[in-house]
Specification:
10 strands, binds ligand BJW, two-stranded antiparallel sheet
Amino acid sequence: MNAEDARSWVRAARHIVLLSGAGMSAESGVPTFRDAQTGLWSNFRPEDLATEEAFRRDPSMVWNWYAMRRGMVLQVAPNAGHVAVAAFQQRHPGRLTVVTQNVDGLHQRAGSPGVLALHGNLSEDKWLDAPRACCEVAKLRAGSPPSCSTCGNLRRPAVVWFGEMLPLAQLAAAEEAAAACDLMLVVGTSGVVYPAAGLARCTPGRVVVLNPHASDLDDAADAVLRGTAAELLPVLLED
Ligand code: BJW
């Protein structure tokens, strides 16, 4: 199967789900999650930093890792893949739902409506422990991380770490969309993290994997296209 054949599936599909992972943003200049880290972070595996346990052990170190990534994301722009998805949604309202594992907000910045962000948002914070009456964002003590000036409760990134529940409403909407779609485009994910990867295994629709390298979801695919998001999506989603 080539991109032209997959395009005929796109044309025929009544409802499409696009499930994206970090590779979706690679051509914007955002390193993928499982890429080797550089500089200060080269001795750490992202899998070991993205946990509540790591944050409680060394809040400042984990906070600074997220601060570095926030700064990086602010300096990049959506790529041709994000733009092609948003343009398709504008031409075909209600026909394509974006379900993303990414926390970088690039689908939203490209103009995709109703993005289901399963792993939260890098740009937002929340309280580490259940907030008490004294915990007010307006009265934070500055720091890395900031904290409640009265009880010391810490702010943390509003992302979903390993072992944490995904936002229930977004997950339910994603499961519903996956159950109702006739085509799922799985773009730029290693397919190792659940429950997100499970969406591609449960859908009754055809599954097309778009990835330059092998992924754990290749065996669930009706077709695998070896290429990048910014190369393939503009071709696939062209009218
Ligand atoms: C390109 C490209 C280009 C390069 N174009 N492509 C079932 C079985 C086994 C385990 C579990 C299970 N269910 C749940 C679990 C546990 C766990 C899990 O999945 N573990 C596995 C790793 C084994 N899941 C969880 O803990 C989840 N929570 C949960 O299940 O709660 C229920 C529960 C709670 C309590 C008790 C019991 C149950 C939560 C998962 C949260 C994941 N969070 C992270 C961090 C977010 C914050 C942050 O960014 O720091 O999300 S982990 C990380 O992985 C991040 C990503 O969204 C996610 C997926 O990674 P992704 O996007 O696939 O990136 P990469 O780097 O892996 O892959 C990039 C791909 O792009 C590669 O394939 C490249 O080839 C490709 N690529 N350039 C296209 N240009």
